Amino acid sequence: MHPSGDQHVLEHGPLRAVVTEVGASLRSLTDDGRDLVVPFGADEVRPVFRGAVLAPWPNRVVDGRWSLPDLGSASGVEQQLAITEPARGHALHGLLVWASYARTGGSTTEEASTLQLSARVVPQAGYPFAVDVVVDLRLDETGLTTTVTGTGLGDDPAPWGCAAHPYLSAGTGRVDDWTATADASSYLEALGDRMLPGDVRPVDGTPRDLRAGRPLAGVELDDALTDVRPDPADGLAHLSVVAADGRGAEMVWDPAVLPWVQVHTADRPEAELDRAGLAVEPMTCPPDALNSGTGVVRLARGQSASASWTIRPLRGA
Questions:
Q1: What is the pLDDT of residues 117-165, one digit of tens each?
Q2: Distant-in-sequence, close-in-space partners of 49: CB < 8 Å, separation ≥ 6
Q3: pTM: predicted TM-score of the whole model, two decimal places
Q4: Which residues contact 104 (CB under 8 A, 6 or more apart)?
Q5: Is the backbone peptide bond immediately before 56 cis, with ω within 30 degrees of 0?
Q6: Using one digit for the tens of pLDDT, what is the confidence trace for 174-225?
Q7: Contact 216, 266 (CB under 8 A)
């Protein structure tokens, strides 16, 4: 068995993706052999949440403690999640990043282009709710599209949010060699070493302003951007990383469904991980949403919520 479980290969023309059983993680995505995301090895334990699906919440829950109204018998009850980010003392990135996803659908031909994976969040300490999670992937000429759907299973409405966690790559070099572009006009302050959520502020005059395209050399980011303006041509949010030759990768999504995007330049103490790629995490809700309630959906029994994003190549002139 590989540390990341079964390996599911999708192919369409020059595009090839490998998705793993553990965390429904995008292990690699290439365009004619050029990396669009930073990969990890089949015999490697997935580093730094690379490519994982985040559910039933993305980002951090401060101190792992939370409570929300409108959750049936769990309304207003303080919950305590396991601390999974010990250095900062928070619960990080949901409950399924190390879960095993079963293959429940998709292509069965030799050159498969679709895949469906499923897992279940079971009631547990800190999250006494049941949710079925289905991840549908499609690889076609537009790129790799992932759709995550959560469906409530219990008597009490389940609080729900989700996100992606790929590290985009321009194919060669590292973060300092690339330019990032995104039309987001605001960001959520992350206060202190523990990155506690503060106020929403304009990006003007800060390194977080990617609207005109920002060379990333020397720039450190780990911020939740918001007020993302959709492109008039397709109504979608766009975030790209591009190398000097004009080639790179782009992520697109519906900002009405995913109004937040965490952007992180992967500043790490480990040389092999440090600034290897740009984490781009479109999110249905912001950091600590299980306390603020911002963007949190309550999934009643049988009720579903879905979010989609696409990673596609930029091939230059």
A1: 999 999 999 999 999 999 999 999 999 999 999 999 999 999 999 999 9
A2: 23, 93, 97, 165
A3: 0.97
A4: 116, 117, 118, 134
A5: yes
A6: 999 999 999 999 999 999 999 999 999 999 999 999 999 999 999 999 999 9
A7: no
Name the burial class of residue 126, with classes exposed (0-12), middle (13-18) and buried (19+) by CB atoms within 10 angstroms of its CB: middle
Region of residue 309 (left: phi > 0; alpha: psi -120 to 50; beta: else): beta
CA-CA distance, 108 to 115, in Å (whole number)?
A: 9
233: left (phi over 0), alpha (psi -120 to 50) or beta: alpha
Tokens of 64: 């792992």
Give which of 222, 212, 94 is closest to 158, Cα–Cα: 94
Q: Please name which of 270, 68, 243 lies closest in space to residue 172, comparing C-alpha atoms.
A: 243
Q: How far apart are CA 18 and CA 214, in angstroms?
A: 30
